[in-house]
Amino acid sequence: MSIEIPVPDIGDFESVEIIEVLIKVGDIIKKNDPVVTLESDKSSVEVPSPFEGKISALKVKVGDKVSKGSILASIESNNLKTKEINTKKEIFEKKEDNVLPVTEKIIKQAEATIVQDVKKPVTQKTHVHQNGADIDPAETQEWLDSIESVLKKDGSDRAQYLLKKIIDETYKEDSNQQLTRITPYINTIPVESEVKSPGDQNMERRIRSLIRWNSAAMVVKANKKNPELGGHIGTFASAATLYDVGMNHFWRAKNNKFGGDLVYFQGHSAPGIYARAFLEGRLSAKQLENFRQEVGADGLSSYPHPWLMPKFWQFPTVSMGLGPVLSIYQARFTKYLINRGLIKDEGRKVWTFLGDGETDEPESLGAIALASREKLDNLIFVINCNLQRLDGPVRGNGKIIQELEGIFRGAGWNVIKVIWGSYWDQLLAKDKTGLLIKRMNECVDGEYQAFKANDGLYVREKFFGKYPELKDLVSTMTDRDIWRLNRGGHDPHKVYAAYEEAVKTKGKPTVILAKTIKGYGMGKSGESINITHQQKKLGEEDLLYYRDRFDIPLTDKQVRDVEFYRPDEKSDEIKYLKERRMKLGGNLPERTSYAKPIKKPAKNIFENILKSSGGREMSTTMVLVRMLTNLLRDKNITQRLVPIIPDEARTFGMEGFFRKIGIYAHEGQKYEPEDSEQLSSYREDKKGQVLEEGITETGAMSSFIAAGTSYTNHDLEMIPVYTFYSMFGFQRVMDLIWSAGDSQTRGFLIGATSGRTTLAGEGLQHQDGHSQLLASTIPNCVSYDPTFAYELAIIFQDGLRRMHDEQENIFYYITTMNENYKHPSMPKGSETGILKGMYLYKQFKNKGKTNVQLLGSGTILREMIMAAEILSEEYNIDSDVWSVTSFNELRKDGMTVERKNLLNPTLKPEQSYVESCLNKKDGPIIAASDYMRSFADQIRPYISKAFYSFGTDGYGRSDSRKNLRKFFEVDKEHIVAYTLSALAKEQLLSSKFADEAMKKYKIDQNKPIPTVL
Ligand SMILES: Cc1ncc(C[n+]2csc(CCOP(=O)(O)OP(=O)(O)O)c2C)c(N)n1
Ligand SMILES: [Mg+2]
Asked: What share of the chain has pLDDT > 70, as a percent?
């Protein structure tokens, strides 16, 4: 039976042009295969077929304009059910009207809680006496007894359930007291529930002590050699147990059978990680001696930097806050790959180590809600709560662990507090009245810090001494015993139990809040004192103390010489250590990639973009969308594209992707979207491909890095294309972009709606005239500011080649614009120039009088072309118009060539590319872009001709493009006038022409430079 394929609801658009017809008569197509591509001036979308079958007639051709209901083709289909035919005008099957059982349950519950319209008597609201005392202790005791019996009979879950019910009841009575999200200041896991470590504790302590020693020795040695090298001892000293338990028992390495856990190490604990790798035989003593001396061969980088140690470090973390946010999005991206069926679910975990001070950074906590919302049970944060940051306490007057507990629990995380070590267990067991916990609760971090900076006697007096009962509790203990009462984060049993629970947790991420001591074991030189963080030089006494404290088998002389210690290869320690890692699959950290390169897209994918757009006006942002749509049809590319957009898809005309490839949502779509009838309806899907991040550039950039490093972290190459308002890219998240470079991320950053005068109405905060300059500061970022569709296509195609064929660890920044104009076809032979940064676009050569070289970039190239026409027609001035696709790339080449020439004074100098383009051309050079002058100025040193540059220095403001270009003096009129003036200055033309032009174009010679306006 033959039926017709109509244009579905396409939103607000009428008469939209067909730019591609993707079927022909006789084609057999599947349901949802694209039939045609429609393009309005704002977006381009494919129309999918609502049926499968054989195309029997085609009713449209390229260039036709269609609206909702227009018939595109007829299709023969034998499989159609009557119901489908009846609804043939609807593209989307409507979901059943039945309410989902979950929803129904929620409705019922809500209905049950609706307050009936019954006036209740207002109750007297005295809860406690003014002094805080209980008004009815007997009643309170009854309640406590009840709950005690529930605890005994039915357990804590039941008790909590009842409490929640009771609290809910109080809300009905208009109580707005909030249920606390903070538990007492004790360990979350009760002693009875602790899972015991299977490890040999003595052996592990010995190994840990050696790691501690070598780690401290590394820093001390480097600073003996050269005090300017710096480094940290106190941080790793506080975290050693946290790392050791993970390394010995939990973290599984990548190998040919398993993808590997991903561990984000706290940046400045790097010495400890090196020290372990030394014992494992992965790093030599020579390398340890070269800690922080990387310029020669075999140095070790100060912090985790994959760029500097590409076979070792995986994740740069030391810029505080980046590790946490990056790892959240890493965990999410792992789930994305699993849900899309691109990698297996092997139960891999992402572990993130951060400092308690680091949680002050908004990036550290800013995305934690996403982690619980998306049920990232593959994510474990370990926050090393040593109560100190660089200068002093993190919360001297409060308790950072409690504060973080409330924040994380409020955000829906599983929180495990590891506060007290095993030596406290007995004391807590004896504390029948709860007074010890009360004391633990009331002490603030400043006090806890001071306890550990002093001694057992001090703790006896100041901590236990506050209450006679507590003083009694420890009366049989010596000061030494009291001193040995350890903190949870230094107790391998407690840490093991917490890790074990964390890896078993389902449905939510886990945070472990481990209480430790900064500079643990450093004694007077740095234990729990404010200057610990900066301590990098230990004197002889301190070193001897440290040796004794951790029983390192070194003589006094060896200690004085700050020797490293590695037991014999056949020793039990080395055997144990290596065996543990063998059991866990290999070494860690280790950076490798076994990804297969993505194959090139078919050539024809870009073909239609290289051709002229004819009469059609479109923006380069639209061209990008069209190109991505084409790429999604390429079998090599389609699965690997990761479009990333922080809530601006409609601004960029990308809403067509919603329907086509879906928005990633781990729970799928639980609702029928209000626009479900439309072609670009909002479609969320568990297998969705678009990462629609919400309004978070930080999150989007983190996703970009996760996707762009997937080739190493998941052995799967992906192609992230992160599109943002160019002003909210580099300027907003530069530190993350820097870390993308360090991580050797591959992908495309698209600065859309770019240009100071091109994004006309949005004004000062939106108009970007400098992102290209910021991009130029990233060594492995390749950046372009193309004008025409074919330039963009050539650049994008070459980017795929370099990053995936050639496996170059680079990423791209390409600015695109929202200004609509016609695109010519590519001038023959211009590919090389487009990629190198400039090519001759057009010559105006009919007059032959005076010559000038006009260099334009982005949309301002079009002003240049118009200026060239005026110069030719009205002033008889010939010109060569160059399209500069990248001043940044030209500068890179210029400086490389110049450096080479200077280093080789006896050799024949080479020519920079920009020089080779311009040296045989006549006339001064006039360059302009929609960016600050310094963008174009970058090539000034590499050319030997007079050079004048124009740009958009100053704050943007709202107005029309025409007015803005006039204001910033980059419109065709200013270019003409300035060119005439430059020619006069070069004595190539009488100055009267420039003067006349200024008058003609009403150029105010007294107007201040826009930077002061
Ligand atoms: C963005 C940023 N700001 C400042 C620093 C400098 N810095 C390095 S470590 C540190 C203190 C860290 O304290 P905390 O997070 O508590 O770690 P700890 O050493 O105590 O484990 C600071 C301020 C940095 N690395 N990154
Ligand atoms: Mg700290």
From this structure: 94
